[in-house]
Design brief:
Number of helices: 13
Structural class: alpha+beta
Helix content: 25-40%
Distance between the termini: 37 Å
Strand order of the largest sheet: 3-7-8-15-12-11-9-10
Length: 406
Amino acid sequence: MRDHRRLGRELGLFDTDPLMGAGLPYWLPDGAVVRHTLEEYVREAERAAGYRHVYSPVLGKRELYELSGHWDHYRDDMYPPMELGGEQMLLRPSLCPHHALIFRSRARSHRELPLRMAELGGMYRSERSGVLGGLTRARAIQLNDAHIFCTPDQAVEEAAGALALISRAYADLGIRASRHRLSLPGGGGKYVADPALWRRATALLREVLDASGVAYEAVEGEAAFYGPKIDVQITDPASRESTLSTVQIDFHQPERFGLRHIGPDGARHRPVMVHRSVIGSVERAVAHLLEEHGGAFPPWLAPVQLVVLPVAADQEERAHAVVREAVALGLRAEVSGPDEGSLGARIRRARLVPYQAVLGAREAADGLLAVRLRDGRRPGVLPVAEFLRRVGQRVRARGTALWDAA
């Protein structure tokens, strides 16, 4: 069974240290490459979809979370307040209150809506020691979060657009949803008490799901405290299910924060907040990718995309020149030379690298490379420039395919 904790340590992606604390993993160089590449992919996809990115602080005053409702409904999962200068400050458990403040920082016109605000930001949750697990349950996470401020008439289209963005990302990452869940409130005092707003938000999310054509199940007791949500569920190799991505329609927080925009009639109107996360937390996304692919990441996401293998020391200089060409083209490449073992041993060690290029005396003399793919295919002997062009083309196209027809 694939366990991301074991794979992460074996592949040198991440680790933990008791002096840093439980549930606080750190990223090693190769893991940092995967994380950075994933974050940039999300930012690029969001920019193309009309999102604007912001940064907001990881701390907020207690009053902020009292206003948002987190202090009343989510306090058990938050870190205790810190006394600073006579004020109580909290590590944020969510980014939405900060984005609501950014929206209301100045007057807004209906012409600005939908306003799509995105952030990859730090978030902190006081998870109990017994539930911590590698990257899947951590106390500090980097959340891919966004909030769309829109009119009620725009909410369904915006939520559907977010669901489509999630679907495209899953295809590029080579993962799939096990099911879609419409998460509704349950009993008890966990949820804000406003039945009319719950019914309204639930009806809109059902409209989104029905229009998308995906099968879904309605489950009580899984909603956010402020509203219902669409949860995109994934399943790990041990058949354990978790939520990776979400789409929510929220009437509650715009009301709590007094959010307004000026409509075409010149009057002040209340916007709707659509919360959405394409890949959830970066930590959980990388954990699932590790277990899904066994460390053989899609070519565009692999920490090392190309390894050049000189057969003998005489070809090392040429191998380093090929790597310099690859790096100049934006590829992540390195040399594995004869001092690291036999050619067979080096090929086995590089088994998770998407592209391997063997460089013998003849290839070095003629500007060629003997190409091997991670899946065992051998496209043949290609000119260096042609090989690098095709690898670059495949990486830029994203997706999971290793090789395209010429």
